[in-house]
């Protein structure tokens, strides 16, 4: 009976110690969620601007933009930053660095993006893509021709080797026939 009381008493003391002992826990600063209001629009940069990893001036730069460049704004924070996206990278730029995009509407109601310079950029990209495609097609054509030449040379080598073997066999056969007479 005394052993049971000692076990209960030790359990109570141990339980009380665990109750009053606190374990310090540090919060990871990188897990803070940033409240962003969704926008999804194109704007133009007024000045050269660096997109930061977090909406803070001291944060690391992830994207560099030049003045006049169009930027894809995907959201806005409450403390004056736009969230931007460029080639699978996301960053934050100050609101005062950009201006709203002026979209032209022509007589048929179609919208143009001339102020952002996107028409010229798209034309340049299309021209560049056409040149890349032509170069790739040219390289594929050269590769096919080289495969054909490899096959032709292979057939010629095999033919020469076979001709030499046949000539050698025939020559040995003729020698045996001539020596047997």
Automatic annotation (TrEMBL):
<dbReference type="InterPro" id="IPR036028">
    <property type="entry name" value="SH3-like_dom_sf"/>
</dbReference>
<feature type="domain" description="SH3">
    <location>
        <begin position="41"/>
        <end position="102"/>
    </location>
</feature>
<keyword id="KW-1133">Transmembrane helix</keyword>
<keyword id="KW-0472">Membrane</keyword>
<keyword id="KW-0175">Coiled coil</keyword>
<keyword id="KW-0732">Signal</keyword>
<keyword id="KW-0812">Transmembrane</keyword>
<feature type="transmembrane region" description="Helical">
    <location>
        <begin position="147"/>
        <end position="169"/>
    </location>
</feature>
<protein>
    <recommendedName>
        <fullName>SH3 domain-containing protein</fullName>
    </recommendedName>
</protein>
<dbReference type="Pfam" id="PF07653">
    <property type="entry name" value="SH3_2"/>
</dbReference>
<feature type="coiled-coil region">
    <location>
        <begin position="115"/>
        <end position="142"/>
    </location>
</feature>
<keyword id="KW-0728">SH3 domain</keyword>
<feature type="signal peptide">
    <location>
        <begin position="1"/>
        <end position="27"/>
    </location>
</feature>
<dbReference type="InterPro" id="IPR001452">
    <property type="entry name" value="SH3_domain"/>
</dbReference>
């Amino acid at each position: 009976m005394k052993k049971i009381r000692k076990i209960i008493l030790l359990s109570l003391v141990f339980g009380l110690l665990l109750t009053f002992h606190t374990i310090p826990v540090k919060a990871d600063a990188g897990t803070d969620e940033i409240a962003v209001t969704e926008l999804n629009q194109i704007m133009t940069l007024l000045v050269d601007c660096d997109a930061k990893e977090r909406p803070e001036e001291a944060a690391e730069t992830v994207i560099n933009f030049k003045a006049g460049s169009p930027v894809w704004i995907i959201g806005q924070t409450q403390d004056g930053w736009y969230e931007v996206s460029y080639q699978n990278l996301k960053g934050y730029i100050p609101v005062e660095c950009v201006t709203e995009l002026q979209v032209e509407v022509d007589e048929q109601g179609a919208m143009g993006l001339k102020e952002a310079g996107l028409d010229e950029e798209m034309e340049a990209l299309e021209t560049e893509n056409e040149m890349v495609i032509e170069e790739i097609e040219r390289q594929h054509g050269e590769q096919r021709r080289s495969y054909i030449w490899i096959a032709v040379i292979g057939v010629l080598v095999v033919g020469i080797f076979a001709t030499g073997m046949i000539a050698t066999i025939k020559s040995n056969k003729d020698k045996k026939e001539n020596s047997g007479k």
